[in-house]
Design a protein that fits this description.
This protein is mainly β. The protein has two helices and 27 strands. β14 and β15 form a beta hairpin. The longest helix has 12 residues.
Amino acid sequence: MSNTEARPAEMRCGSPAETDHTDTAARVEVLTPRDVPLGGPRAMTVRRTLPQRARSLIGAWCFADHYGPDDVAATGGMDVAPHPHTGLQTVSWLFSGEIEHRDSLGSHAFVRPGELNLMTGGHGISHSEVSTPGTTVLHGVQLWVALPEQHRHTARDFQRHVPEPVRLEGAVLRVFLGSLAGSASPVRTFTPLLGAEIVLEPHAGLTLPVDPAFEHGVLVDQGHLSAAETPLRPAELGYVPDGTSALTLTNDSDTPARAVLLGGPPFGEEIVMWWNFIGRSHADIAQAREDWMTGTRFGEVKGYGGDPLPAPELPHVPLKPRGRVR
């Protein structure tokens, strides 16, 4: 799922000023989501934790939507017409349901639970996303990764990976990006990243060695989970600053808990995020919008039975870049 808001606000991506992280104990900042309806009157509503005022980046992760369990019979499911992306990678990860993906690279794939689909927008790509007829419940996360300046005009690409489950005492992990607990993903990224699904059994605890050069985020999907003794409710994201070498997750409930763990070194560049574009200036975004509306740069999505999405109007004030203050 992409950012199909009819009136998207400027999404300024940056981080608060750097603080001292000289110890190895995790300190967790709780980020609460906001509800965002996507599409028309029968739209799905997603819970968005990135970007927001309190914090808009975790490593290069700059966008996090959590959705479902969504009753497709009531909402109509997902039907996102062809739309563009620049300067980013999209990460699709499902817990239930199935989504048909088509893009202007010619990729035709199905997003299924436990299977990573990563699309690189780079200089420009377009794609469509439609839940399949057999899907009754749609439930998952849609994540974006900002591309660094050196690679933000890279060629479009699509990668798929099915991570093997890693079974630990009281937990099962699926590492779809980066490495964790002895498991490593072969998927190519342009900055170091971590992405993993973690399921904790009832009353189980797990301490994971993590890279102290990384910031981390724990996005709770279901259950009662604590990160470093900080309780997190479903759809909340617990931010852990860099300088932390171990992260303890605990499930104090009688039912399984599930979360997505994100990580990466602090992203040191200023970026501008608006609609489905990431650039470095207002001019970058305006050019991308013009290219989309004039049918250049982004290619054609074949096989979708409908018209592409038109771009919203740009705001009347210039979009301003922001970045991490060092």
